[in-house]
Amino acid sequence: MKISKKKISFLITHYNRPLDLLKCLKAIKSLNISDSEIVVCDDASQDKHLETIKDYEIDQLIVAKTNQGLAANINKGIEACQGEYIIYCQEDFVLNVQISNLLQEFLELLDSRKVDMIRFTSNSPFNKLIPLTAAVSLIPKFSFRNFLLNYYQYSDHPFITKKSFYLRYGTYLENTSGRYGETEYAIRILKSDAKIAITKKNLASLIEGSVSVLAHESDRDNKIFTINKSYLKVGRALRLYLECFLYNKAKRGLITYKNLRQK
C-alpha cells in the first residue's frame, strides 16, 4: 500500500531476543507498506545476539554501548526516525496484516487531531469507549465504567502516532526501570490533553512463548501475591489515582513506586 507524500517509521525496541525480532520484522514486511523505514534500537544486547540481528533487513540499527533501559532506548529510536508517523512495536509483538488496509484511516485521524495516538491492543478491554470510525474508538479521559483502567490509556504496547507527539507531550523519563518508566509516562499522558484511541479489534499480538524483560526486573517472589486479584486491581487503581493527584509535571517521577534502576 502506497501512502503518497508520507513516510512511516517502524520503530522496534530490542534486547536479547533476536528470534522474536525476526518474527516481528517478518510481520512488518508482510504489511507491504511502501515509503517506510524500519528502525531497530538495541539496548546493548549480548554480542552473539548483535551478530545475529546485523544480518536482518533493517534500515537503521542503533546499538547502545551500555544497557540504559527501555525509556532511553525508545528515546534514541524516536530521534532516529525519519518518518512523519511512527508505528512503535517491541520485538515480542507481531503486527496484524489488517493494519495495511486501515493505515490511511489512521493517518487521517492523526492529521485531523481527532486522536493523537492509536493503540493496536490492550491487555484488558475498556468498558467505555467513544466510537470514531468503524475501526477506531476514543478512550475517554475519565469514565466510572473504566474506573480500574482510566490510568491505562497509554501503554508501550504497539501503537501509531506522529513524531510530533513527542515534541508536544515529551519523551520518556530515562534512568528508570521498565514498569516505573511506563507508569510515569502513562500518568503524564493522562494528565495532558492527549487524545488516545484504540482499535476495536486487536491488531497486534504477543509472540507465543516470548518472555518479557520486565518479568526479571524484580527479585520479588510472585507467591506473595496470593490475595484476591480483584482486590489487587482496585488497590492498584487507587494507588495510581493518588499518583495522578500528586504528579508534578516539572519534576516528574512517582511517589509510591520504586525505580529499580536507581540503587
UniProtKB/TrEMBL annotation:
Keywords: Transferase. Residues 9-134 form the Glycosyltransferase 2-like domain. It holds the Pfam family Glycos_transf_2. One of its GO terms (molecular function) is hexosyltransferase activity. The keyword Transferase applies. This is Glycosyltransferase, GT2 family. It comes from Flavobacterium xueshanense.
